[in-house]
Every structure is written in C-alpha cells, then in structure tokens.
Design brief:
single chain, 138 residues, 3 helices, rod-shaped
C-alpha cells in the first residue's frame, strides 16, 4: 500500500478552504451543543427551584390552615355552654346520679361532634377535667 502523507501547506487553496471550513463547522457544532446543554441545565434548575418553592408554599399554607382550624375549634369548644357547664360541675357525684352524668357526657360529646363536623379534616379533641380525689383513697 502506498500511503501518502500530504502536508497542509502542500494542499491547493480550494482544499485548504474546504478543510478549514469543515474544522470551523465542527467547532461551531460542538460549541452550539455546549451552549445548548448549559442553557438547558440553567432552565431546568430554575424550573426545579420554582417547583420546590411552590411545594413549600403549598405545605406552609396547608399548615397555616390546619393551625387556624385548630385555633377556631379550640375557641368554639371553650365558649360552648355544654362544655363550660361540664367543666364547672362538681366531679363527685353520688352513685344514683351516674345516669344523669352519662347524659351530660353524651350532650357534651354530641356538641363536640357538631363543632368538629363543621371543619374539614380529622381532629381529636380531649377535654381534661380535674376531679377531686376522695380522701379515703389516700
């Protein structure tokens, strides 16, 4: 095989221009690809940041909404007449009045259900009432 090496200086003007044009086109395509990739990365990064910011804002609004609901539920419970009378009544009832107490507990429970049903979501409410400990149990 006869391989012949041709130097650049030995080429004709037309071949030199074609060769240089081909190199410049290859470099231009490479630079365009690099610019395209970098611009695409910047836009995707911006899009991800915006989406994450939107998600964080959504979670924050949801949290604030739930906290506002809890605040409103607490206020409604604490101004409810049945709940207030339940908390104010004496805890020591004789055994023959236990049926009256159950009705009172049921009334308070139904008031709580009606308050909680007016809000969306699932909430658990505890009403803690301090009771006196009989002295004979000490």
């Amino acid at each position: 095989m006869n391989t012949r090496k041709v130097k650049f200086s030995g080429l004709s003007i037309k071949s030199k221009v074609q060769y240089i044009f081909t190199v410049f086109v290859a470099i231009a395509i490479l630079l365009c690809f690099v610019f395209f990739v970098s611009i695409t990365r910047l836009k995707l990064t911006g899009t991800y940041v915006d989406k994450n910011e939107d998600k964080l804002n959504s979670v924050q609004k949801s949290y604030l909404s739930v906290m506002e609901n809890v605040n409103n539920i607490s206020k409604l419970i604490m101004i409810n007449d049945s709940v207030l009378s339940y908390l104010r009544e004496d805890g020591a009832l004789p055994n023959n009045e236990s049926e009256v107490r159950r009705i009172s507990d049921d009334a308070v429970r139904s008031e709580l259900y009606s308050i909680l049903n007016s809000f969306s979501g699932s909430y658990t409410v505890f009403i803690l009432k301090q009771r006196e400990v009989p002295s004979n149990n000490i």
